[in-house]
Amino acid sequence: MSACAQPDPSHAQTIRVEATTTSMDWNAVALGSGHVFVAGPRWTGFPGPAVGVLTKRKGIKPFPNADWNDWKPGIDPTHRFVSVNALHMAPDGTLWVVDTGTPSFGGAPISGGAKLVRIDPATGHILRIYPLGSEIAQAGSYIDDIRFNDRHAYLTDAGKGALIVLDVETGSARRVMVDDASTVAWAERPIVMDGHNVENRPHEPLLVNVDPLGSGPIDLCREF
Q1: What is the predicted pLDDT for the residue at 209?
Q2: How far from each other are the two terminal CA atoms of the chain, in whole angstroms?
Q3: Tens digits of per-residue pLDDT, 73-100?
Q4: Domain map (residue ranges) of the chain
Q5: How far apart are CA 2 and CA 162, in angstroms?
Q6: C-alpha torsion sign, points 196, 201, 205, 209
Q7: 60 CB contacts (<8 Å, ≥6 apart)?
Q8: Is-contact 74 80, C-beta < 8 A?
Q9: pLDDT of 218
Q10: Separation between Cα atoms, residue 108 and residue 146, nearest integer Å
């Protein structure tokens, strides 16, 4: 797995490789305050750290510290990463970590595990933790991605097919577009890789509900 950066918009065809690894499954990369942050989900067998920052020697240092990255079953997950699925730099320059709270893919989030963690990327200072309780991160939920628009953050639930709207100032969240045609996977459109359907188990296509959000500003076309 590689972490790459596009250093200059005027040379869009130039890709600079920041780091590579054959032992970690990075599924999230974010750039901020001169640092490269990487993360990977627990269910892949990812050895961690759940969130790391590249060092000058291209090693991986736990971020914001080792304690946040040492969760194990039975340990209070409220101030530790359980299984991180996304990193994103918000418009204000802070780093947001999306913790699904689910140790295994498709499993229920553990109590207190699902959360968003807002961090100062320069210092590692935890600015705020946004718990996603069982009414938001429900059994079967897989909180997947995050984007921002003004004072709201929008997240996808790839497990149960919904969007989550979070008021960044108050911390209140709600589920919208639950089981909507735009948030639920279509059985007639399976995921295809290398010409073959991706299967959850033999002869059963893997269906993933609403997953990534666009990288540009969100255009709200419907009333939530």
Answers
A1: 57
A2: 38
A3: 999 999 999 999 899 999 999 999 999 9
A4: 2-205
A5: 30
A6: negative
A7: 19, 21, 24, 38, 49, 52, 53, 54
A8: no
A9: 42
A10: 20
Three-class DSSP labels, the chain: CEEEECCCHHHCCCCEEEEECCCCCCCEEEEECCEEEEECCHHHCCCCCCEEEECCCCCEEECCCCHHHCCCCCCCCCCCCCCEEEEEECCCCCEEEEECCCCCCCCCCCCCCCEEEEECCCCCCEEEEEECCCCCCCCCCCEEEEEEECCEEEEEECCCCEEEEEECCCCCEEEECCCCCCCCCCCCCCCEECCEECEEECCEECCCCCCCCCCCCCCCCCCC
- β 126-131/143-149 pair status: unpaired
Specify whether the backbone of 106 is left (phi greater than 0), alpha (psi in -120 to 50) or beta: left
- In this structure, the number of other CB atoms found within 10 A of the CB of residue 149 comes to 13
Structure tokens at 50: 């759940």
* Residue 53 in tokens: 């920052």
User: Could you give the CA distance from residue 56 to residue 101 in angstroms, rounded to a whole number?
Assistant: 31
Yes or no: domain 2-205 corresponds to CATH 2.120.10.30? yes
Question: Mean pLDDT across the chain, nearest whole number?
Answer: 81
Averaged pLDDT for residues 135-161: 90
